[in-house]
UniProtKB/TrEMBL annotation:
One family name in Pfam for this protein: I-set
Record-given protein name: Interleukin-1 receptor type 2
Summary of the function given for this chain in its UniProt record: Non-signaling receptor for IL1A, IL1B and IL1RN. Reduces IL1B activities. Serves as a decoy receptor by competitive binding to IL1B and preventing its binding to IL1R1. Also modulates cellular response through non-signaling association with IL1RAP after binding to IL1B. IL1R2 (membrane and secreted forms) preferentially binds IL1B and poorly IL1A and IL1RN. The secreted IL1R2 recruits secreted IL1RAP with high affinity; this complex formation may be the dominant mechanism for neutralization of IL1B by secreted/soluble receptors.
Source organism (scientific name): Hipposideros armiger
Gene: IL1R2
Domain of life: Eukaryota
C-alpha cells in the first residue's frame, strides 16, 4: 500500500498501483459485509422462540407395525433439510402429540433418536399415536407429524399391516421384504426367513427361493395358487435382547396382456411396379384379440433394417397404423419407394412381426411391370369395336330410313364382323 501511494504521486499511474488499490477496496468491502452479516444473524438467532415452529403437515404414510417389534419412524421433513443431519447446528427432536414432553434421548428407555429417526424398541399398542418431529437450526424451525399404529399379530390385522406386491402370471418374479433399510444398515450377515401363510419356506424349495444376503424371495412360474400372505422375518439384536422384525406382504397376481400369434395378411409375394414411379407396399398384420402394445412390426431389405440401408432417403418405412375392424386388431406398416429403381428388383424385402409368442416374416419382391399388359393388348380390339359399333349404328340408321345404298355399307361391316366373331360375343 505504502509503495503504491508513493508511486501514485507520480503523473503516470502504474498497473501494480491500480491492482493494490483494487485489492484494498475489496478487503474493506469484505470487512463491511462480514460485519453487517454478523449483526443481522445474531439478533435472528434470539428471535426464534422454542414454541414458534412452522407446521408442515402430516406425513401421508401411516406406519403399521406388529406389537413387540422394533419400529423406526423417519423424520418426514428431514429430506427438505439438505444435509441437515450432517450439520452440527441442526437439532432434531421428537414428541408424541398427546404429551408436550420431548422424547428423552437415550437407549435405556427403549426410545431414542438416531440420525434424526425415532427408534422405539420394542413398540407396544400403547405407543400408537401421532408423533411430531421438530427440526431446527439457528434461524429456522419446522415440524411434521407421522402416525404410528401398532397391532397385535392376528389374522384380522393382516390386511392392515401388509404391503401389497404384484407379480405377473406364468412368469418368475421376486417379493421384496420392505422397509428394512434402517435395520440392515452396516449389516453383512442379513438373514431373512420367509413364510407363506405362516408356513416356513425351507431352503430346498424349488418354487420359492430366498436369495441369501438380500431381502428377496424368488417365485418361479407364478400361478394363481400363489395368491397369499407372505411374511419375512429378520432377527434384530439390541442390548442382549433379540427381536423379530416382521413384514407381511399380500401378493396379487396380474394376468399378462393377451397375446395372439400374429398373421401377416399382406403384402403378396410379388409386387408389380414400374421403374421411376412411387410405390407403397403395406405390411398388414392380423392380431385378432391380441394387443398392439407388445407387437413389433418392421421391414427389412437384404436382411438389413430399412433405415440403415437407405439412410432415410429413397426407401422409407411409413407410419405405423394400429386399428380395429369388427373387434379384431390390426397393425400396418407401409414400405415406401420414391421412386422404384432397378436395384429394388434384385433386393429381398421382408416384413417381420414379433411379439412374445411368435416371430414371423414374409418375403416380397418387386417385379417390373412388363410393357405387355392387358390394357395395351386390348387397345386395338377396343378400336375395332369402336369402328364396328359406328358401322352398326350407321346401318341401323340406314335401315330405319330404308335407303338402298345402305346395303353396301352393311356388307363392308359384315366382313369386319366375321374377322372377330368370338371377341364380339365376349363383349356382348
Ligand atoms: C394432536 O392431537 C389432537 C387431538 O388428539 C389433534 O386435534 C391435533 O390435530 C393433533 N396434532 C397433530 C399435529 O397431529
Ligand atoms: C437454517 O435452515 C434453513 C432451512 O434449511 C436455511 O435456509 C438456513 O440457511 C439455515 N440457517 C443456518 C444459520 O444454518
Ligand atoms: C407353470 O405352471 C403351470 C401350472 O401352474 C404349468 O402348466 C406350466 O407347465 C409351468 N411352466 C413351467 C415352465 O414350469
Ligand atoms: C421370532 O420368530 C421366531 C420364528 O420365526 C419365533 O420362534 C421366536 O419366538 C420369535 N421371537 C420373538 C422374540 O418373538
Ligand atoms: C440386395 O442384394 C442384391 C444381391 O444379393 C443386390 O443386387 C442388391 O443391390 C441389394 N440391395 C441393396 C439395397 O443393397
Amino acid at each position: 500500500m505504502q509503495s503504491c501511494r508513493l508511486q501514485g504521486t507520480r503523473p503516470e499511474i502504474s498497473t501494480s498501483c491500480v491492482l493494490w488499490k483494487l485489492l484494498g477496496t475489496m478487503f474493506i468491502v469484505y470487512l463491511l459485509i462480514m460485519g453487517v452479516s454478523s449483526f443481522t444473524i445474531q439478533p435472528e438467532e434470539r428471535t426464534v422462540p422454542a414454541g414458534n415452529c412452522q407446521f408442515r403437515g402430516k406425513h401421508f404414510k401411516t406406519k403399521f407395525e406388529v406389537e413387540g417389534e422394533p419400529v423406526v419412524l423417519p423424520c418426514p421433513q428431514m429430506r427438505y433439510w439438505l444435509r441437515a443431519s450432517a450439520s452440527p447446528h441442526v437439532s432434531v427432536t421428537w414428541r408424541k402429540n398427546d404429551s408436550a414432553r420431548m422424547i428423552p434421548a437415550g437407549e435405556d428407555t427403549g426410545l431414542w433418536v438416531q440420525d434424526g429417526a425415532l427408534w422405539i424398541v420394542p413398540a407396544w399398542r400403547e405407543d400408537s399415536g401421532t408423533y411430531i418431529c421438530t427440526v431446527r437450526n439457528a434461524s429456522y424451525c419446522d415440524e411434521m407429524s407421522i402416525e404410528l399404529k401398532v397391532f397385535e399379530k392376528t389374522e384380522a390385522s393382516l390386511p392392515l399391516i401388509s404391503y401389497p406386491q404384484i407379480l405377473t402370471l406364468s412368469t418368475s418374479g421376486a417379493l421384496v421384504c420392505p422397509e428394512l433399510s434402517e435395520f440392515t444398515r452396516n449389516k453383512t450377515d442379513m438373514k431373512i426367513q420367509w413364510y407363506k401363510d405362516s408356513v416356513l419356506l425351507d431352503q430346498d424349495n424349488k418354487k420359492f427361493q430366498s436369495v441369501k444376503g438380500t431381502t428377496l424371495l424368488l417365485i418361479h412360474n407364478v400361478s394363481m395358487e400363489d395368491v397369499d400372505y407372505y411374511s419375512c422375518v429378520m432377527m434384530f439384536a439390541h442390548k442382549s435382547m433379540r427381536y423379530n422384525i416382521t413384514r407381511t406382504i399380500k401378493l396379487r397376481i396380474n394376468k399378462r396382456e393377451e397375446e395372439t400369434v400374429p398373421v401377416i395378411i399382406s403384402p403378396h409375394k410379388t409386387i408389380l411396379a414400374s421403374l421411376g414411379s412411387r410405390l407403397t407396399i403395406p405390411c398388414k398384420v392380423f392380431l385378432g384379440a391380441g394387443t398392439h402394445l407388445t407387437t413389433l412390426l418392421w421391414w427389412m431389405a437384404n436382411n438389413t433394417n430399412i433405415e440403415s440401408i437407405y439412410n432415410q432417403d429413397r426407401v422409407t418405412e411409413g407410419q405405423r397404423l394400429e386399428y380395429s375392424e369388427n373387434n379384431e386388431n390390426y397393425i400396418e406398416v407401409p414400405l415406401i419407394f420414391d421412386p422404384v429403381i432397378r436395384e429394388d428388383l434384385n433386393t429381398d424385402f421382408k416384413c417381420v412381426v414379433r411379439n412374445t409368442r411368435s416371430f414371423q416374416m414374409l418375403h416380397t419382391t418387386v417385379k417390373e411391370a412388363t410393357t405387355f399388359s392387358w390394357e395395351i393388348a386390348l387397345a386395338p380390339l377396343s378400336l375395332v369395336l369402336l369402328v364396328f359399333g359406328g358401322i352398326w349404328m350407321h346401318r341401323w340408321y340406314k335401315h330405319r330410313t330404308g335407303k338402298a345404298y345402305g346395303l353396301t355399307a352393311l356388307k363392308t361391316g359384315h366382313q369386319e364382323f366375321d374377322a372377330y366373331p368370338s371377341k364380339i360375343k365376349e363383349i356382348k
